[in-house]
Prior knowledge:
Blueprint lengths: L2 E4 L9 H11 L3 E7 L11 H7 L6 E7 L7 H7 L3 E5 L6 H10 L3 E6 L17 E5 L14 H15 L4 E5 L7 H7 L3 E4 L1 H4 L3 H15 L1
Parallel strand pairs: 1-8, 2-3, 3-4, 4-5, 5-6, 6-7, 7-8
Helix pairs in contact: 1-8, 2-3, 6-8
Amino acid sequence: MNYLSPSLLSADFATLGEQVQVLDKAGAQFVHIDVMDGMFVPSISFGMPVMKSIRPLTKRLFDVHLMIGNPDRYFTDFKEAGADLITVHAEACTHLNRSIQAIHDLGLKAAVALNPATSLHTLDYILEDLDMVLIMSVNPGFGGQAFLPSSLDKIRELKERINRTGKEIAIEVDGGVNLLNAKEVLDAGANVLVSGTGVFKGDIWENVQNFLQIMREAE
C-alpha cells in the first residue's frame, strides 16, 4: 500500500491545527513532522510543544523526521509528544544500531534517513532492523527545493536490496515530490511520499485527493 505524508514544514503555522484536521479528513495517512535544530541543518523548525498541541487533532501516524545532531537525547520526549515513527539521519548518529534499538525499545517504529550524497552501503548492517528508509531527494534544511533526479536510481537500488531481505521495509522519499513526479517516484519503488508545498500550496483537500488518486493507480 502507498501512503501520503504531508510535511508540516510548508503549512501555515497561523492555522496549523485547522490544516492538520483538513489533512486528516482528506485522507492523508501520515503527518510528516520535520524537526530541525539549526546545527545538523541550517534551519530551525519546531519541536515537542508544537507536536503536543496538534496530537489531539488527529489519529493519523506522526512521522517524525529528526534533522538534529545527537537525536538519542530526545527519543523519549518525542514519544511523549505523540510520535509513532522516528526517523534519524545516518549522518547524525555516532552509533546507528544503538539509536534504532533505543527507538524500538520505546515501542515506536524506526527509520533511517540518507542524504543525497550518502551511500546505501551505510545500511549494510542495519537494513533488516528498520521499519522504513527515508531517501532524501534534496539536501535537507529547506522546503520547496527541486527533486534530484539521481534519487530515482537510489530508490530502485534500495528496493532491490529490500526485496532480497524478504522483509517489509517501507521506502519514504522526501524532497521536491509533487503531483508531476509522484508516479515516477512510486514506480521506482517508493511507497511513502512526503510532500510539503505539493500539498499545502493551493487547495489542501484537492491536492491530497490528487496525490491519493495517483497512489491508488500505482498500487
